[in-house]
Amino acid sequence: MLDTGSLIDLLGQPQKIVITTHHKPDGDALGSSLGLYNYLIQLGHHVHVISPSDYPDFLTWLPGNEEVIVFTDRREESASLIENATLIFCLDFNSLDRINDMGELVRASGAYKIMIDHHLDPADFDDYRHWNINACATAQLVYDFIANVLNHKDYINKDVATALYTGIMTDSASFRLPNTTADVHRVVAELIDKGAVNWRIHELVYNSASENRIRLLGHCLTNCLEVLPEFNTAIIVLKKQDIAAYDVHTGDTEGIVNYALSITSIRLAAFIVERDDQVKLSLRSKGDFPANEICKLYFNGGGHRNAAGGQSTDTIAQVVEQFKLILPKYKKLLIQ
Ligand code: 5GP
Ligand code: MN
Questions:
Q1: Would you state the CATH architecture of domain 211-335?
Q2: Angle at 22 between CA 147 and CA 79, to 5 degrees
């Protein structure tokens, strides 16, 4: 275990640091990682960001993106960096199974492991934890870690601010979710003061779709959406042949589930997609409906109350059927 004083002492000397985040990083995963990266390099540390998988094109403009190592493309180099690291920061996840094959390498490394995260039920693999389930984004916690734990607000430059703004913006669904508190807005205002160009970041993330991505959205809403009014639930089911027809890339399906949730009476929305080796579910809910409970209990996953994910090795038809069979158990919560 590390206490805060010892961590501050360690960070006072040059360290060999690896920053990693969860499989298929989203805006918060990559934004918090590159925010921390752009801070740590100013202190003279030797820092590498290693992502367990590829990530969407709409994040590749982030400052420091060119330095990110994708583990599956550069396994040996990544393994050596993890083995020789003195500190490993684990951002936006709290269980080593979220980083696939990298998990065992991180576990085996002699480095101190620092978890910065806002997901429920952290597993016990870390030496230091900056964890708060009430944070709207891990990027908010990275801001708090730099500004208030390490007292280094002055190091929050334009690059740090830009990456952290992106994390907060994406994980709070553009400052809409209930955990977007006045404090979050104060942090965001400060990030803008430090150089984050808010309108430009929105444009880069949300107005950068390929034509295929928008046509895929049209297809999903016209042909793949099923509304179950008796459960205030909407489901979008995307099959393998559609993935091929629309040349779907990583990130292209992100956000589609929110259209199903935006129907007025809908309290639970599911996006169920047939990937190469498994079926992936993305659940979103309104109010106090626990989407993460369904993912955890039935689909080997987890997440937050209003945004959760999971997967299954069953066929897509079986997964859809299983999902529908679960709904009666939650009827009271869904129709209230
Ligand atoms: P998404 O639906 O965008 O893939 O994920 C929504 C939320 O659920 C994110 O916070 C993500 O970290 C979490 N999540 C997605 N898939 C999984 C999973 O397989 N396991 C766990 N524990 N969390 C997941
Ligand atoms: Mn997050």
A1: Roll (3.10)
A2: 100
| 151-188 pLDDT tens trace | 999 999 999 999 999 999 999 999 998 899 999 999 99
Bridge partners of 112, per DSSP, are 87
- Structure token pair of residue 216: 């895929």
Tell me, what amino acid is at 67? E
| 304 Cβ closer than 6 Å to some ligand 1 atom | yes
Whether residue 63 has its Cβ less than 6 Å from ligand 1: no
138-139-144 Cα angle (round to 5)? 95
Specify the residue with its C-alpha closest to ligand 1, atom 14. Answer: 309
Q: State which H helix or E strand residue 283 sits in.
A: strand 279-285
* Short-list 95, 92, 74, CA closest to 138: 92
Domain extent listing, the chain: 4-206, 211-335
Structure ipTM? 0.97
Q: CA geometry: angle at 171 spanning 254 and 321, to 5°?
A: 45
Q: In angstroms, how far is the first alpha carbon of the chain from the final one? A: 45
Homologous superfamily (CATH) of 4-206 is: inorganic pyrophosphatase (n-terminal core) (3.90.1640.10)
Tell me the pLDDT tens digit for each residue of 84-135.
999 999 999 999 999 999 999 999 999 999 999 999 999 999 999 999 999 9
- Could you tell me the distance, in angstroms and rounded to a whole number, from the CA of residue 28 to the centre of ligand 2? 5
Maximum separation of any 2 CA atoms in the chain, in Å: 60
Residue partners of 243: CB distance under 8 A and separation at least 6: 273, 274, 275
